[in-house]
TrEMBL record:
Classification via SUPFAM superfamilies: Periplasmic binding protein-like II, Winged helix' DNA-binding domain
Similarity comment: Belongs to the LysR transcriptional regulatory family.
Keyword tags: DNA-binding, Transcription, Transcription regulation
Domain HTH lysR-type: 1-59
Protein name: Transcriptional regulator, LysR family
Gene3D superfamilies: 3.40.190.290, Winged helix-like DNA-binding domain superfamily/Winged helix DNA-binding domain (1.10.10.10)
Organism per entry: Phaeovulum vinaykumarii
Source organism superkingdom: Bacteria
Keyword ATP-binding recorded: no
Molecular function GO terms recorded: DNA binding; DNA-binding transcription factor activity
Keyword Transcription in annotation: yes
Length: 308
C-alpha cells in the first residue's frame, strides 16, 4: 500500500501535467517530483505517465489510479477537518479563482473579513480572465460569470450585480451631452478585446450598438483605469465605481445590465464540511460586498450634481 505522500505527488503531476508545475504546488523542485514518481511507478510495477515534450499525460494505469488517489485525498481532508483546529474555526489553504473584476474589487474585502474571522486560513486569490479548470485543481473553488454546462461540478448562484455606461467627469464635460444611445456615435468606446471575450456574458458593448472598440483590454481594471484617465466610455461594474473617483454613470435610465456571479466547486468537495463552510462564508461575503458597494454608488449620485 502506498503512503499518502506518494499519492499527493501523483495527484500534483496529474493535475499540473508537468514536473515543474507539480513542484510549485508541492513547494519542492522538479527533480524531486520526478524521483518520487519514478519510485511510485517502480513500487506499483506500472507506468503512470506518458512523458513527452508537452508534459506528462496519464496512462491507462494512471487513469485507474486517479480516483483512488482522489478518494485518499478526500479522506485525509476529512480527517484533518474532524481532528484539527478549534471548534467552528476554519484553517488551511483556500485558493479561489475568479475573473479579474471580482478578484480586484470584491474579493480583497471579503477575504480580509474571512481571514479576521479565521486566522488559521491561508487564502490565495487567483485573478485570471478565463474559466478555471477545477478538475486539475487550479483552485479549490471558482467564481464564474455563467454556470458551466459540463463537468462534475456543483454550481450555485452567488450574487447578481449591475453594470452601466460610465465616463470620467472631465471626459463628459469635454463632449456634448449624452441623452440617448444615438449620442454615443463619435465617442471612443472602451471594452474587451473582441476575440478575447471568453464568455458571452462579457460582451457588454453589444448592448450599446458600438461596432468597434477604440481602446480594448482583456482586463477589467485596465478598462476602468482607461475610463478614469478620460480615454472614453465603457460599460463598468457598479461595484467598481467607488474605486474610481470621478467616474460617473450615464444613461442609467436607458442602458442597465444585470449579470450574475456563480460559485463553482468540484462535485467531490461536497463531502468536505470545511469547503462547504468556506463556500457559504464566501457566498455571504460576496453578496454583502456587492450590495454595499452598489448602495454606495447610489448614495453618491443622490448627493452629486446631475450628469451632463
Amino acid at each position: 500500500m502506498q503512503d499518502w505522500d506518494d499519492l499527493k505527488v501523483f495527484l500534483a503531476v496529474a493535475r499540473a501535467e508537468t514536473l515543474s508545475g507539480a513542484g510549485r504546488r508541492l513547494r519542492c523542485d522538479a527533480a524531486t517530483v520526478g524521483r518520487r514518481i519514478a519510485r511510485l511507478e517502480q513500487a506499483l510495477g506500472a507506468e503512470l505517465f506518458l512523458r513527452s515534450v508537452q508534459g506528462y499525460a496519464l496512462t491507462d494505469a494512471g487513469a485507474r489510479l486517479l480516483p483512488h488517489a482522489e478518494a485518499a485525498e478526500g479522506a485525509m481532508q476529512a480527517a484533518t477537518e474532524d481532528l484539527g483546529g478549534a471548534a467552528g474555526e476554519l484553517s488551511g489553504q483556500l485558493r479561489i479563482g475568479a475573473p479579474d473584476g471580482c478578484a480586484n474589487f470584491l474579493l480583497p474585502q471579503v477575504c480580509a473579513r474571512l481571514s479576521d474571522a479565521h486566522p488559521g486560513l491561508e487564502i490565495q486569490i487567483v485573478a485570471l480572465p478565463r474559466v478555471f479548470n477545477l478538475s486539475k485543481r487550479e483552485a479549490d473553488m471558482a467564481i464564474g460569470v455563467s454556470p458551466p454546462a459540463a463537468g462534475r461540478l456543483v454550481v450555485q448562484r452567488l450574487a447578481d450585480y449591475h453594470l452601466h455606461l460610465a465616463g470620467h467627469a472631465d471626459y463628459l464635460a469635454r463632449h456634448p451631452p449624452i441623452r440617448g444611445l444615438a449620442d454615443l456615435r463619435g465617442h471612443r468606446m472602451i471594452g474587451y478585446i473582441p476575440d478575447m471575450i471568453f464568455d458571452k456574458e462579457l460582451d457588454y458593448l453589444a448592448e450599446t450598438g458600438a461596432e468597434t472598440v477604440g481602446l480594448g483590454s482583456n482586463s477589467v481594471p485596465v478598462q476602468l483605469m482607461a475610463v478614469r484617465a478620460g480615454a472614453g466610455l465603457a460599460i463598468v461594474h457598479d461595484f467598481a465605481l467607488p474605486f474610481a473617483p470621478g467616474v460617473r454613470r450615464v444613461l442609467t435610465d436607458r442602458l442597465s445590465l444585470k449579470r450574475s456571479f456563480w460559485l463553482i466547486r468540484h462535485a467531490d468537495d461536497r463531502r468536505s464540511d470545511r469547503l462547504t463552510r468556506l463556500a457559504e462564508a464566501l457566498a455571504q461575503g460576496v453578496r454583502r460586498e456587492v450590495a454595499r458597494l452598489e448602495a454606495e454608488v447610489l448614495a453618491g449620485e443622490h448627493t452629486a450634481s446631475p450628469a451632463p
